[in-house]
Specification:
Helix 14 (about 250-255) packs parallel to helix 17 (about 300-310). With about 850 residues, this protein is of the alpha+beta class.
Length: about 850
């Protein structure tokens, strides 16, 4: 197929090429053109196709798998007399259309060679096509009975096994010839019919989707019920689920919805786990979203593909759940117009995990796509659905996501007039008081795999349920755990569903303690999270949330369950692997420590040596990258001379540097420069940046998670004397943690521009690692390149935009550098030598940088604080 597409000058599959038949026909057409050009014949003579069909026909008649060379030569000459003088067989072998098997006989007179089709499917297709060409459409059913032309292939299970390739081709070609006819349905013997059914279903991915009918659906239902074959059948239907057909993702969606949550998960969760880890269709559908140009995907395909990805989020395996979520976000962001249909379809599921992930994926995609009209339509739809049946949304995360989508509409000036920002915060008339099981009731669930232990004693109870602590004044934590347990065992019908078998398997293979892989969760644990979110929704509606007397005054109504936001849907689908960042010459760090220069010095001499230190001037110099000029604002690089094979106690030298920058009003910049020059920045006495734990990168800084409490609540004031001037860090940090997001390569902190930079309301998340100008396709002007590239965390700014932005805001920028030279490892019998050093710099209005004097300190406390 690839050869055919390339020969036609194409870079993608042409429209209409669905199934193997059109691909093979197109492949042969290209070969006809090549032969015609080489031997100056007419391509319309079909010498190549005629020769191959004649050979296939002769192979069928002989009952063998190959044909003697002389016989092949004869049948070709009979089929195409005009080619009798041309080396057709030799060309077919040279063109990889036939394989020549040379006799390995040791005698003086070797037997002649034999030939057979090169590609198994090509040969099977040619043979099947030849057989069907001999049968009238009305006689196909008769030909499958004893004495019929096809009976020799399908008469017994043994013959089916021997001729599986030809039967597969027949199962593809027969429905194309006679609509609604399936070869498996033509066989009366049950065992033979089942054998042919398996081949037929496994061949579904090779079929033109227009050949699928109600007969095909009946076969698929039967295949899914067959013991030992249901997973293979599901593989087959997933492989075609993305194409519009009677057996596509919409059909799978309806089929899966016919089963109750726990009964379905007993099959679905184990299937998803196995097929993801074995790199089956589940894994391929997920990974394809990270590899294909999604903007070129047709809307009908995107609709079905996203539907399947979101059904994958039902998995207990967090790798499947989280990677499919990230894939869905990428696909929906590329084709946001399909979100309304996908959202409407998946919200009808009885699985709150799917419903929550569908809303979360939609939210992330809408932020990244910034499509105002789609945001407006979805906000209106969600609020109508919520008003119509609020109990359907009785889940804290579901309600929070709807509120966040509404806030997004408001931020984009796309909020419909009839919509309320805090509609989902209104109390729902849910069941109250809670039905708390007795201790005797709890005992009957003790044998369920780790369920009682996790709900009432283990880490889930001790730590995860802490997000409910503000409601413990109304319901005790113990009763909360008992309610969650009963909710799972009884209401979710976990007990006796078959999910216990999967959970035992996961516990046996991956363990159940803190040492297990975090992605390897039980179905029971999945249900614990769902029940917890539902309980939080109940508590929000019926118990007044208790606040600490030291808590600051709220600026907005908080989300119901802020601490449960563990997956950021706005992060890029592919992030670089996290590891040791030392000694990496990242392009955004313009200078580095050269530890080779002073390697002959003693340790005491080395810590006083300054020639090997990075130059602050060079580190702050503008760096050219991808036709853009960047300037470093914040970073913490380090360098060391430790050998890779060094022992843990071997001493080595290290240099680290913390480069930070601060925003200061133009009126006070002179005062600030003089107060900071030659000072020791050890001890964190400068104002500290804000650190956020539950916000998403794409909703910074406008969304409720970043505005519920004053920003000062999320950062520490510097220690020591107060500054005599106003000074704000130029950046904030966002904690991105992998423990509950298995799609991440590791935990990290992302540096974001300070809120001050957003005052002009012209910045928006770029979907990768920074913030761009808000106009569609505007250039990125702030980045943390370490999100997508190897190197230390950093915040860099477009050099030209930075100057212009600071001027509009009436601000100036001052950098501080705190560094240290020290000896690590080695003997601890005596203190090792170390020195700290500090330096400042100021960005002038012209774009030039004023560099202050670098000062060394042998005492951490000397000259700390402003002068």
């Amino acid at each position: 197929m690839c050869e055919t597409i390339h020969s036609r000058g194409l870079d993608r599959l042409p429209s209409g090429w669905l199934g193997i038949a059109p691909a093979i026909r197109a492949f042969l057409d290209e070969k006809e053109k090549l032969f015609a050009a080489e031997y100056e014949t007419a391509a319309g003579a079909h010498i190549v196709g005629g020769a191959l069909k004649a050979i296939a026909r002769a192979i069928v008649d002989s009952g063998n798998t190959s044909l003697a060379w002389s016989n092949a030569q004869r049948v070709v000459s009979e089929e195409r007399p005009q080619a009798a003088t041309l080396p057709v067989l030799e060309w077919l072998v040279r063109g990889d259309l036939l394989i020549e098997d040379i006799s390995d006989s040791d005698g003086p007179f070797r037997e002649e060679s034999t030939v057979r089709p090169s590609f198994e499917r090509l040969g099977d297709f040619l043979i099947a096509d030849e057989l069907l060409g001999r049968i009238d459409s009305a006689q196909i059913e008769e030909s499958c009975r004893p004495g019929g032309l096809l009976y020799g292939l399908i008469g017994t299970t043994e013959s089916v096994q021997q001729n599986s390739g030809v039967i597969s081709a027949l199962s593809i070609l027969i429905p194309e010839k006679v609509a609604g006819m399936e070869i498996a349905s033509l066989i009366e013997d049950e065992s033979v019919s089942h054998a042919v059914l398996k081949i037929t279903v496994e061949s579904f991915p090779w079929r033109d989707t227009s050949s699928f009918t109600s007969s095909s659906i009946a076969l698929m239902y039967e295949a899914l019920r067959m013991e030992g074959f249901s997973w293979d059948a599901m593989d087959a239907v997933l492989s075609i689920s993305w194409q519009p057909s009677p057996i596509d993702a919409i059909w799978i969606d309806n089929m899966l919805k016919q089963s109750h949550l726990a009964n379905r998960d007993a099959f679905w969760c184990k299937f998803l786990h196995d097929r993801y880890e074995a790199v089956g269709p589940v894994r391929r559908l997920i990974d394809a979203a990270f590899e294909l140009p999604l903007g070129q995907v047709e809307a009908d395909i995107a609709d079905r593909w996203a539907t399947m990805l979101l059904w994958f989020t039902a998995a207990a395996n967090r790798r499947v759940k989280d990677c499919s979520t990230r894939a869905a976000v990428a696909l929906l962001a590329a084709r946001p117009e399909v979100i309304p249909k996908v959202l409407s379809r998946l919200l009808e599921s009885d699985d709150d995990e799917i419903r929550e992930r569908t809303l979360l994926s939609s939210y992330g995609a809408l932020i990244n796509a910034q499509d105002r009209e789609v945001v407006r339509a979805i906000t209106s739809d969600l609020q109508i659905m919520f008003r119509r049946n609020p109990l359907k949304f009785d889940n804290a995360l579901v309600r929070d996501h709807i509120r966040c989508i509404t806030e997004l509409a408001h931020e984009l000036d796309a909020l419909p007039e009839e919509c309320e920002l805090e509609l989902t915060m209104r109390p729902i008339e849910s069941t109250w008081p809670l039905h708390i099981p007795s201790d005797e009731d709890v005992k009957k669930w003790n044998d369920l795999p780790k369920l009682s232990l996790s709900c009432l004693d283990d880490d889930f109870y001790v730590y995860s349920m802490c997000c409910l602590r503000s409601w413990e004044n109304g319901v005790s934590k113990r009763d909360m755990g008992k309610w969650i347990l009963r909710r799972i065992a009884d209401d979710f019908a976990y007990e006796g569903s078959g999910c216990e078998n999967y959970d035992k398997y996961m516990l046996d293979n991956f363990g159940g303690g803190r040492g297990k892989n975090t992605w390897a969760e039980r179905v029971g644990k999945k249900y614990q999270w769902i029940a917890l979110y539902q309980l939080a929704s109940h508590l929000h509606d019926h118990v007044e949330r208790k606040r600490d007397s030291l808590d600051p005054e709220l600026q907005r109504t908080p989300l119901i369950l802020l601490e449960a936001r563990k997956f950021d849907p706005t992060l890029p689908s592919r992030m670089r692997m996290r590891g040791v960042e030392r000694d990496v010459d990242a392009w955004w760090i313009g200078s580095s420590a050269d530890l080779r220069v002073g390697e002959d010095l003693s340790d005491d001499e080395w810590v006083d040596y300054q020639e090997d230190l990075p130059s602050l001037e060079d580190m702050l110099a503008v760096q050219q990258r991808d036709d853009q000029r960047w300037r470093l604002l914040v970073s913490s690089p380090s360098w060391e001379n430790r050998d890779e094979d060094a022992g843990s106690s071997d001493p080595y030298r290290q240099v680290w540097a913390h480069i930070e920058s601060y925003l200061i009003s133009k009126d006070e910049v002179g005062l600030a420069y003089n107060a900071l020059h030659r000072r020791n920045f050890f001890g964190e006495w400068m104002p500290q940046r804000a650190t956020w734990y539950y916000g998403f990168a794409g909703e910074y800084p406008w969304a409720t998670p970043f505005n519920t409490e004053p920003e000062e609540r999320h950062r520490r004031d510097g220690f020591g004397d107060k500054l005599s001037f106003s000074c704000n860090p130029s950046w904030s940090d966002l904690a991105v943690e992998w423990e509950y997001d298995a799609s991440l390569p590791g935990s990290f902190y992302m540096s974001m521009p300070a809120r001050n930079f957003f005052a002009l309301r012209d910045l928006w998340w770029n979907g990768r690692d920074g913030y761009r100008l808000r106009l569609m396709c505007g250039r990125t002007v702030f980045r943390d390149p370490s999100v997508t590239e190897v190197g230390p965390n950093a915040l860099i700014a477009d050099a030209d935009d930075l100057i212009e932005r600071l001027d509009k805001l009436g601000l100036c920028l001052i950098w501080t550098l705190l560094g240290e030279k020290l000896i690590l490892g080695g003997s601890h019998e005596k203190p090792t030598p170390r020195r700290t050093f500090s330096q400042i710099a100021q960005l002038n209005d012209s774009g030039s940088v004023k560099i202050g004097e670098r000062v060394f300190f042998d005492d951490y406390d000397k000259d700390t604080g402003p002068s």
